[in-house]
Specification:
This protein is 75% helix and 0% strand. The protein is mainly alpha-helical and 370 residues long. The longest helix has 33 residues. The termini are far apart.
Length: 370
């Protein structure tokens, strides 16, 4: 049995683990190249790196947090074992989600999807985050800043390792990275919500949180207006929720008015400008990361804000509509009528002919929209 484990790499070697951890922090590029050159299976990485570090992070960070009071009993519940198991389950699930998503999207963006190599890549870049999580738990009240810095640095390393691990082309690298981060965040938010409202999460019952404060939901303004990943994720969630409540009764004749088309054109112009600005900021950040210009805590915070920008890219049109006091349901209806009118070239009904004539008036702006 031992011989089979050695052949498959499924054996824990403390010396190799320490060497990988040290190299992952001090000489990441060299360590990645050497480790990935052997195309290690996920089992080898699990026994050699992922398992030991993830378990150490969960056990020690939960223990230190419990001892030093970095988290309240409200968040962790009264049972240390329950808190430990919950943290372990969410950590493992979050890790596997990231591996599956990053690997699958590599194929979509022209790379070579590989669960084994993605498992290794995510494990290698997660080293700073895992270590910072342990150290941060030792420091009451401000330890989260240490953990945050480690998490941001791991995100920087993830951007760097993707071409090496999955051969994503340079021209699609930023797109793959942004979409992967957004997908991982959304999936983890869904996972967290399911666990919280199913009663599996330790601590008090959260199922009535929406009914407190005289039946009104309350969300922290600081979080909602945050510029980092989690602030933007919260803001986007609120935006989608608000947009989903919009209602619109289409006219019986199916004809779009000129005012509606002008409003749509205005939204499109503003959305294009916002996308260009945010894309330029992300490009600048990616160039700084590529050139190794990330050296200070301020640089890390700039990257953190950049990740928040990436999260907000998915709903730019919705954001323009809602912040301008518009009706998202009406906007979608107008957009769909113009799309169909263009597809049918105005033939088939009076409404299609009317809508196509309006579309042609603004084709220079709307041409690339459909």
């Amino acid at each position: 049995m031992t011989e089979n484990n050695e052949e498959n790499g499924m054996e824990f070697d403390i010396n190799k683990t320490v060497a990988l951890v040290k190299g992952g922090v001090l000489e990441p590029q060299t360590t990645w190249s050497e480790y990935l050159a052997d195309n290690p299976g996920w089992q080898k990485t699990l026994f050699l790196l992922t398992g030991p570090l993830l378990l150490a992070n969960v056990l020690l960070s939960t223990l230190f947090t419990w001892i030093f009071g970095g988290l309240s009993k409200y968040a962790m519940g009264d049972s240390f074992i329950a808190a430990l198991l919950f943290t372990l389950v969410t950590a493992v699930a979050g890790f596997l989600l990231a591996v599956f998503i990053i690997s699958a999207l590599a194929g979509v963006f022209g790379g070579k999807p590989s669960f084994d190599r993605t498992f290794a890549a995510v494990s290698l870049v997660a080293i700073p985050a895992w270590l910072a999580g342990i150290v941060g738990a030792l420091i009451p009240w401000v330890g989260f800043l240490v953990a945050l810095a480690g998490g941001i640095w791991s995100l920087v390393l993830l951007y760097k390792i993707i071409p090496l691990a999955l051969e994503v082309p340079d021209d699609k690298r930023v797109g793959h990275y942004i979409v992967s981060i957004i997908a991982v965040i959304i999936c983890n938010m869904i996972l967290g919500a399911v666990l919280a409202f199913s009663g599996l999460r330790p601590g008090p019952d959260l199922s009535d949180i929406g009914s407190r404060n005289d039946g009104k939901t309350s969300i922290s303004g600081d979080i909602a207006s945050g510029t980092g990943i989690f602030g933007q994720a919260q803001r986007q969630a609120e935006l989608v929720q608000a947009a989903s409540r919009d209602q619109f009764e289409p006219p019986s004749d199916g004809k779009v008015s000129e005012d509606q088309v002008e409003d749509l054109v205005e939204v499109v112009k503003k959305a294009e400008a916002a996308l260009a600005d945010r894309a330029e900021r992300l490009k600048k950040i990616s160039e700084e990361v590529e050139e190794g210009e990330v050296k200070s805590p301020g640089d890390l915070m700039a990257i953190y804000e950049g990740m928040g920008t990436a999260v907000s890219l998915q709903n730019v049109e919705m954001e323009v509509v809602k912040t301008g006091g518009g009706n998202w349901a009406e906007y979608r209806w107008v957009k769909e009528q113009l799309r169909v009118a263009k597809l049918q070239q105005g033939s088939g009904s009076d409404a299609l002919e009317h809508n196509f004539e309006l579309y042609k008036e603004y084709e220079d702006v709307l041409g690339d929209l459909f």
